[in-house]
Amino acid sequence: MVKTVCVIPARWGSTRFPGKSLAMIAGKPMIQWVVERVMQAQMPEAVIVATDDGRIADCVKALDIPDVQVAMTRTDHPSGTDRIAEAVYSVHADVVINVQGDEPLIDPALIDELAAVMTAEEGWDMATAATPIEDETMIADPSVVKTVFTRHGKALYFSRSPIPHIREPGTEWQGVYWRHIGIYAYRRDYLLKLVQEKPCSLERLEKLEQLRALDTGGRIKVIKTQDFGIGVDTPADVAKAEKALRKLQEG
Fold first, then answer.
1. pTM over the 0.90 mark
2. Is the pLDDT of residue 244 over 90?
3. Which of 78, 96, 133, 148 is the most buried (most CB within 10 A)?
4. Listed residue (111, 59, 57, 48) closest to 84, CA to CA
């Protein structure tokens, strides 16, 4: 039986929002919202919060939720991927799902769908998700990562630029652009190999870690979803997250 663990990287030193894991959102620290949403998923057997800070660790431990562990990791990791790799280095697991620690509205069903793909389809090294872009202003927005993939869901590229390029003005763009969602499922062994690779030139240019996987021949499955959550990157995003959480609870 494939064993799946869910790892939530949560560092203290965010450039734009230091300590955001403990930012209060609708009466709870953000990391609590993320943990509780992840715990609603059915397929992961365990949840690990990978952090570099004792305050975040203490907050998670105080939740006293069964099957939620805390892994203290180094402070010098260049990315969340490196942090989760350290957290699972000694963990027996086949599939590792990386849920960002700033996604308080992550869809538990999406976590299960990624886990199911990695369980049922052995040909993939990784899996991730994308949602249709319906707001035209997002196409040229470099903060919105776009992806293109084959009819079978194999990722071809990820970029901050508009991809694909529409050569003829006026061509219908609806249904063409897909926004990448930063949730990943990895084969554990592949993850440990991936973090040993140096960043490639495309990764350094775009600042997108998944390009390292493509550069080294990694096979990434992209699943389609209508959900894209609410990422909390700055203090201003807290109000947006609270509004979305209230809407979710009312619904």
1. yes
2. no
3. 96
4. 48
